[in-house]
Amino acid sequence: MLVSSLKLHDLIEEIRGAKTQAQEREVIQKECAHIRAAFRDGDPMQRHRQLAKLLYVHMLGYPAHFGQMECLKLIASPRFIDKRVGYLGAMLLLDERHDAHLLITNSIKNDLSQGIQPVQGLALCTLSTMGSAEMCRDLATEVEKLLLQPGPYVRKKAILTAVHMVRKVPELSDIFLPPCVTLLHERHHGILLGTITLITELCQRSPAALRHFQKVVPKLVQILRTLVTAGYSTEHNISGVSDPFLQVQILRLLRILGRNHEESSETMNDLLAQVATNTDTRRNAGSAVLYETVLTIMDIRSAAGLRVLAVNILGRFLLKSDRNIRYVALTSLLRLVQSDHSAVQRHRPTVVECLRETDASLSRRALELSLALVNSSNVRVMTQELQAFLESCPSDLRADCASGILLAAERFAPTKRWHIDTILHVLTTAGAYVRDDAVANLTLLIGGAQELHAYSVHRLYHALAEDISQQPLVQVATWCIGEYGDFLLENCEETETLQKVEEEEVLALLEKVLQSHLSLPATRGYALTALMKLSTRLQGDINRIRQVVSIYGSCVDVELQQRAVEYNTLFQKYDHMRAAILEKIPLVEHGNHQAEAAAKESQAAAQLSEDKASVPTEPQTSKLLDLLDLLDDTPGDTQQPPTLNPCPVGGLVHLLDLPCAPPPPAPIPNLKVFEREGVRLNLSFTRPPGTPPLLLITVTTTNSSEDDVTHFVCQAAVPKNFQLQLQAPSGNTAPARSGLPITQLFRVLNPNKAPLRLKLRVTYNHFGQSVQEIFEVHNLPVETWQ
Fold this sequence. Notes:
By secondary structure, the chain is of the alpha+beta class. Among the domains are: about 415-580; about 670-785, Gamma-adaptin ear (GAE) domain (Immunoglobulin-like, Sandwich). About 55% of the residues lie in helices and about 10% in strands. β9 (about 760-765) and β10 (about 770-775) form a beta hairpin. The longest helix is centred in the last third of the chain and has 22 residues, at about 595-615. It starts with 7 loop residues before the first helix and ends in a 9-residue tail after the last strand.
């Protein structure tokens, strides 16, 4: 006998009244058993009630898969109440992963052709929610017919279903092109908004559709002008802005149609200026329309005055109290700073004010934009503002701020002394957060500025005396004291505040660094080497230095122990050579190493071509005679030993068994595999002579844009019959304007000499955005695998 189950209202009350989760599970399990029994033996006229309860259970997160077939039965029912619950169940319980969803294709097709609008609406909603690619191909023709039906209710849902079909199956785009042009003349808000959305999807997925709809730009301009001037309807007026949702969609479509198209851009220029000047931005609706207008102006080929107007609008956004609007403005200005640098520079004071925001996301965007605005004319002012921000900024921003200041100082420093002062300030404030190359860059800078040796060592000594916790600062200071410690014994002419110090004070400070628990092993190595160099710089007794060095001869750190043992040996056995070994390093020229390397490479190539041109060409017969002369023992002639030359073609050399070197392998040409916004990846190939199956691939990443590339990661994959080993890259940051490139070595072992296939994944941050590209490298040279 069938036990009566609860009604939906009673089931909801009982579940909500359960005091524990165990009680809730008990109620649901009991009711699911009743629902199964009702599906099997119950009244077919009441099945929609049982399925409605099952759908509620499904929304609570409990399994309800046993109701999938009941959905199909209810959809096939002629009663509307059954179809309504059946279609709702199909949208909730079915998806592309279940083969059962294909069984409702015929039911949907029949309902679409019935002509009953409520039923057609249910079928279209279900198709747009869970329609698979196969269903979209089978039902595209029926949906196209409904696009031009007289009733707006069905047409609106058919348009949204067409959007889903285009996303699922882009090749169906051609079917929906003709109806869209007709639908643009509609006055119904829902139909017009859906049509604009459909055209946008078509243009993004089909170049042919993009060219087709560029002809309707005047019609779109007319619609938007009507919205701005006369209004559309009071029903869709929000905060004094006429139909902002429709305006935003039209502006997005105009941005796609006007990109890299001169004629379309000229058609919409006047309209964009009108929207930008007449839109009220006191409410969010107006700000949204104005923001889309700015994006459209920046993406199309707009006039220069219009682009300046767009930047000024973003500048006004920065003055608003709404943090979301200010964040959007900062992000947009960061994208525009490279193309419209002078226009963005006018809003520099407002951007700097945003650095003081308590919101972390706002201050991070303001920091990125402030660093992008630094140039040679404002580097002193901007660096001062950034240094003030560095002292109080959150810890998660200190690394980015410190690295940005160092890069800006290296690129735009007006004088070497200012450059050194700036780096010292960063090291003193946030030394633990600077990049790994900060120590090497500062030592290189100081080493190349002979006139600032005394000033630098005095500044670093007093900074070290105040704080020995910042390890990069301690390393630079100890290196400088070791090299130029003799200047500490004299007054510094550069500044009156830094007076000379005594030898005992210098040695005591270095011993303090060696004994401090804050010092890293590398820092202790710097300090021990500095003490050793001071043994030739200072004039006093060096026994104190001898004692300290001998103590560390038994240090547990192997590197420090090795240094101490070598220095002790230098004291004991080679004391006469100590002054020469520990003399000051020569001046270092801090230039553009990349340019110098390129010049050397071009010079070597030119010399090689000259050498090739100077080699005389002889006929093959003369070469043969020369080879035969080597066997002739004519007296009186001084014979030279034969040189190892590449073997000429032919078998005579093998018969004579003359010494012959194998020809050098031909160089493998380089290959450019990726380029985007100034970021370029080049592959260079090398085969070690001793291991032919091994291929060495050097990935060189360069950045010619105006913004640094950070957090760069390059990963590779090869087929299973290859062996791939990725070496560590030289860094993860590629400085802007063709700075030091990032290099990484791939070792590929190909024992079967199969054709090489390589897939790369590149991720990095650029212009404030995260970029990820996955691509397969085609057209690899044949020499890489043969």
